[in-house]
């Protein structure tokens, strides 16, 4: 599309004929992200609320298409990279965020923990206590008990910025830092409360203990998890007690977001997230 053609299309964004606008919208969306800077400039220069609203919707649709494409590619080719999956979800709400800040903060947490571990031979429990001290006491990460259903609890950049999150977002940050230290700590898809498992390095299928990240890294034993499942009248099965894969984590985050947007009565975003969830079912 030439510049003149693009300018002509943009000039018709306030056309009262909705059928004509739909054709324009379709053409602009098919152009992809490259047109967003020009659309943003047009929005700034416009004094027409209708045109501005339509531009906002077109930009959102272009960005949402990108998120859908990235999520599908992630599942097919890069599902072993949890952080990449989390960043894709982040782009839904924060398409222009500074992603380097997330990587920097995680690297800082890893570096602080590594410094504490590098000279000592520590047991798994001692390593977890060190991580707890760095992540919860020094960095200040904690569960958002006052606003548990806030959608922001599911976006990693906001959790790192506000230092408040829900069980799964806190667990993801904790596991990402731990795995960068070569600690065998992985997510467990426990119903109602996502936790982490510290696996036995000499026997990878064996769980040494569990970590309740929402309770500042409380160490839990297998009998604690079994008792919790019995309270929920659920079977004690590997599905609930063994580590899950990254797509399962991403799906649970998306389900949390669906519930969160329902809680704040934002059905547009709720439906967007439901579409993302369908892509990785």
UniProtKB/TrEMBL annotation:
In the record, the note on similarity to other proteins reads: Belongs to the UPF0162 family.
Show where the Protein SirB1 N-terminal domain sits.
Answer: 105-255
Q: Which domain of life is it from?
A: Bacteria
Q: What is this protein called?
A: Protein SirB1 N-terminal domain-containing protein
Q: Which InterPro entries match?
A: SirB1_N (IPR032698)
Species for this entry: Sphingobacterium corticibacter
Species lineage, top-down? Answer: Bacteria, Pseudomonadati, Bacteroidota, Sphingobacteriia, Sphingobacteriales
Q: Which Pfam families match?
A: Transglut_core2
């Amino acid at each position: 599309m030439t510049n003149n053609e693009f300018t002509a299309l943009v000039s018709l964004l306030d056309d009262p004929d909705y059928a004509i606008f739909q054709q324009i919208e379709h053409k602009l969306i098919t152009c992809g992200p490259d047109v967003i800077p020009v659309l943003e400039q047009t929005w700034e220069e416009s004094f027409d609320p209708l045109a501005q609203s339509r531009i906002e919707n077109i930009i959102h649709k272009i960005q949402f298409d990108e998120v859908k494409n990235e999520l599908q590619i992630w599942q097919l080719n890069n599902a072993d990279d949890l952080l990449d999956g989390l960043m894709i979800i982040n782009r839904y709400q924060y398409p222009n965020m500074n992603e380097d800040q997330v990587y920097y903060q995680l690297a800082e947490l890893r570096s602080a923990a590594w410094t504490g571990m590098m000279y000592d031979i520590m047991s798994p429990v001692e390593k977890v206590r060190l991580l707890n001290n760095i992540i919860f006491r020094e960095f200040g990460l904690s569960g958002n008990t006052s606003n548990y259903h806030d959608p922001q609890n599911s976006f990693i950049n906001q959790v790192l910025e506000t230092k408040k999150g829900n069980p799964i977002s806190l667990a993801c940050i904790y596991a990402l830092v731990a795995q960068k230290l070569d600690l065998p700590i992985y997510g467990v898809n426990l119903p109602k409360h996502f936790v982490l498992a510290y696996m036995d390095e000499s026997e990878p299928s064996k769980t040494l203990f569990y970590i309740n990240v929402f309770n500042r890294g409380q160490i839990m034993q297998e009998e604690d998890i079994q008792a919790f499942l019995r309270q929920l009248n659920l079977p004690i099965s590997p599905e609930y007690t063994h580590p899950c894969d990254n797509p399962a984590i991403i799906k649970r985050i998306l389900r949390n977001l669906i519930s969160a947007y329902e809680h704040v009565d934002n059905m547009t975003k709720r439906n967007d997230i439901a579409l993302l969830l369908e892509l990785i079912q």
